[in-house]
Amino acid sequence: MPSIAPSKIIQFKNCRLVRDGAIVRDDFWVRGGRILNPEPLFFEERVRADLTVDCHDALICPGFIDIQINGGFGYDFSSDVGKLEEAMAVVSKGLLSTGVTSFCPTLVTSPSAVYHEVLPKLKRTPGGKEGAGILGVHLEGPFISPEKKGAHPVQYIQKVEGVEKLHNTYGNLNNAALVTIAPELPGALEAIRHLASLGIKVSVGHSNGNLEDGEAAVNHGASFITHLFNAMLPFHHRDPGLVGLLTSQRINRPVHYGIIADGIHTHPAALRIAHRTHPKGLVLVSDAMAAMGLGDGNHLIGQMQVKVEGKRAQLVGTNTLAGSIATMDDCVRHFIKAAGRCCCSWGIRAASLHPAEVMGLSHLKGTLDYGSDADFLLVSDRGPLQVLNTFIAGECVYSAPEAPPLNYIQQKHHKGGAAL
To answer: 3-state class of 117 per DSSP?
Structure first.
C-alpha cells in the first residue's frame, strides 16, 4: 500500500455506506485519519480530493470492535504470561483479517500474580499496520459465582469483600477498561460503584443472581451483561434473572448485553428473542480463545485445559464450553442469518456501534459519522458478508487475497493546486 501524507484528501467512490442503520449510496471522504464531511471542503476550504479510490461497489462500514476475546492464533492472554508481547503482536495482527480494528484483551479468572504481571503490560494502543488497537483490558473474574463459573478455575475465584480487595487482587487498574462481576456477591455493589467512579465499565455475569441483584448493580453503575444466557440463571417467568434487565423499568439506564453468535453458545431462537426485545443493546462478542484461527487440538484458556473438536471448545473431560473459536466476522455472518428479519446493517451495528457505546467511545468509533476515527472496512455483501479491506486511521492495513486492488488515483488539479 502507498504511504499517504496525513494532509491528503482521499475520496472513495463507487461504494455504499452503512449509516444510521441503513445502507446508502454515497462517496466516502478521509483526511488525517478522520472521516471527513465533504460539504465544507467544497464551500469553505474550496478544495477537492487529492486521491480517489474505486471501491467496485463494495460496502463501507465501521471497523468491528471485540470487547471480549481471550486470545487466538495459538495464544492465550491469561496463561502465556511469558510470551505476552508475542501473543499481543500475533493476535492484534491476525484480527485485522477478521475486520476487527479495536479490541479488549480479556483475562479470565486467574491467580492474583497473573493480574499484577499482565495488567501493566496490556496498554492502550491506537492500532495500525501492526494490528488492531487495544481499548483496555476486560477482567472477566475472579469475582464471580462458583456455581456459574463456566470455564473459570474454581480455586482462583474470590469474594469481593470491598474496594481494598479489588486493588489487592488486580494491582494497578490503569489499563482496565471493563470488569465482569457477579452482582449478588457480598460487597459487589460497593465494588461496582468504585470501579464506575474510576471510569471503568462494569458488567454483570457469571452470576447466580436474580433480576433484583442485576437491577441494583445497574443502579450502582453497571451497564453491560457478559454473554447473555451463558453462565447465569436461566430465564424464568417468575424471576427472569439477569435476562430481565433487557426490559426492566427499575434501572436508571438501558443496558447493553453481549451475545456469542457462534452457533453453539446461543440457539438462534434465543438470539432472536434477545434482539427483538432490545435490539439497540445487542453487542456481538467472539469470546474467542487460543484455538481461533487454528484447527482441532488441545489449548489453554487461563489455567484450564481445553479440547477443540469441530467448532466446539470444551474443558477437557467435561461438556463445559470454554470460549469459542469464532472470529468476529463469523459472528456477524451468523447473526445476520440467524436473526431472521435482521438486515446486514444491524449485524454490523452490533459489532461496531454498540460495543463502542459500551466503552463510551461512540463519538470516535463504531460509526461513519463525520469527525470519527477512520477505522473502517470494505466488505462484500453479495452473499455471505466478507471482509475485503481493513483500514485504521484511514490507512489500509489488510487486504484479502480476493479483494480488488486498491488503486489510489492522483487527481490533477488546475492552477492553484487542489483549489476549485
So the answer is: helix
Mean pLDDT within 299-321: 91
CB atoms under 10 Å from CB of 296, counted, come to 14
pLDDT at 351 over 80: yes
pLDDT > 90? residue 152 = yes
CA distance 325 to 176: 24
Does residue 67 have a pLDDT over 90?
Answer: yes
d(CA 417, CA 420): 9
At residue 347 the predicted structure's pLDDT band, cuts being 50, 70 and 90, is very high
The long-range contacts involving 346-350, CB below 8 angstroms and separated by at least 24 positions, are: 346/21, 346/275, 346/279, 347/284, 347/385, 348/18, 348/61, 348/62, 349/18, 349/21, 350/259, 350/282, 350/283, 350/284
Catalytic residue among 76, 287, 373, 381: 287
Express each pLDDT in 29-48 by its tens digit: 999 999 999 888 777 877 78
- Tell me the C-alpha to C-alpha distance, in Å, between residue 59 and each of 16, 141, 177, 348: 5, 38, 31, 11
From CA 8, how far away is CA 75, in angstroms rounded? Answer: 38
Full DSSP string of 318-378: S--B--B---HHHHHHHHHHHTSS--HHHHHHHHTHHHHHHTT-TTTSSS--TTSB--EEE
Of 118, 200, 136, whose CA–CA distance to 163 is shortest? 200
287 has catalytic annotation: yes
* CA 355/CA 366 separation, integer angstroms: 8
Pairing of strands 100-108, 137-140: parallel
Confidence at residue 415, expressed as pLDDT on a 0 to 100 scale: 43
What is the distance between the alpha carbons of residues 391 and 1, in angstroms, rounded to a whole number?
11
